[in-house]
């Protein structure tokens, strides 16, 4: 009986409940299939702190080694630490994590050598087909000579590489509260920030894949509450919150107020352009703030607008030779990090920018936060296409308004814009709106929602 992988093989990764939807025997087949599809002679594997991660990672290693592939295990790591290993060692990689999902979930993020992403169109569909076939037939044939499985520590190298990309030597002393959410930030932050003029106040640094304090998903405001309160109590200069696999970083200012990922994107873009002599392309997805392309142009760079999603960002980074890319979801991509995303490097840029001047973070980021935004608002609808068609009809032909369909439908005027995108997995429409002030934004948002919700 072939395994049904339709529920766990997603557009960009493997993700599902363990052991209900997948287990170590399937992970072993995924390892063999990954070896087959990449054609690699060696790979690197890492995993997060979830209880099921070490066993799944070991099974994947067995499957790859049985096909003659030499495996380097780097053990506990953040997702961007795995990307570092893939880039520095020039090997395909597999990271065992379900990011911010609840404890019963686990998954695999796959990349080719140099941290190039593997998704449905770049190998994941073939991997799924092989695993399904082998699960029905009893498994693949073993290689005449099995590969080796070895161990390598990469945390210190990863930290040194990140610090080589941001000059923090002359910053003023800062007090920073870091909420690791019991995720991999608790593993990486102490090493990355060691020796810097920082007083680090740790929160939930104990690695615990059951997430006893709160979900490791800082995109949900409820999961920032503890950090915001602690920043105010400590009189800290800022707070940082990482998700479960620590590839995304969220920032709060000295008042405990969240700094929008668009403002962080604009700040880092300005710094990366300065590092590159005021020249370079910066990628931003179409629902980041208008501030981002404005700042990029102000600094002499070229902004390029893309669809939402890391596969689109990484593909455009590679095509255009972009130096940096940012998304509204706090994913930050760097040319100097193999075009891969690393929240930790973005955090170092924020620390360097704040520590390089005397004002508070709220004043520093104000110049990068010029508009009022709604955040993402989800609405359950019966017919996504019909609702989008209704919006298109309502705004077509209005003076000064343009429509485009790069990703969903974006409606724009001189003083405001909004985008409506269908979810690929749920009967939802996602609305993001922005305007020159809060009053206008609320008007634009509510008008769009009235059509969406019929």
UniProtKB/TrEMBL annotation:
User: SUPFAM superfamilies annotated for this entry?
Assistant: Phosphoglucomutase, C-terminal domain (SSF55957), Phosphoglucomutase, first 3 domains (SSF53738)
> What cofactors does the UniProt entry give for this protein?
Mg(2+)
Please name the InterPro entries in this protein's record.
A-D-PHexomutase_a/b/a-I (IPR005844), A-D-PHexomutase_a/b/a-I/II/III (IPR016055), A-D-PHexomutase_a/b/a-II (IPR005845), A-D-PHexomutase_a/b/a-III (IPR005846), A-D-PHexomutase_C (IPR005843), A-D-PHexomutase_C_sf (IPR036900), Alpha-D-phosphohexomutase_SF (IPR005841)
Q: Where is the Alpha-D-phosphohexomutase alpha/beta/alpha domain?
A: 7-134, 156-256, 266-371
- Name all Alpha-D-phosphohexomutase C-terminal domain ranges: 376-448
- Domain of life of the source: Bacteria
- Which molecular function terms from Gene Ontology are attached? intramolecular phosphotransferase activity; metal ion binding
- Keywords annotated in UniProt: Isomerase, Magnesium, Metal-binding, Phosphoprotein
Q: Which Pfam families match?
A: PGM_PMM_I, PGM_PMM_II, PGM_PMM_III, PGM_PMM_IV
A GO biological process of this protein is: carbohydrate metabolic process
Task: Give the record's family classification.
Answer: Belongs to the phosphohexose mutase family.
Name assigned to this protein: Phosphomannomutase/phosphoglucomutase
Look up and give the organism this protein is from: Streptomyces actuosus
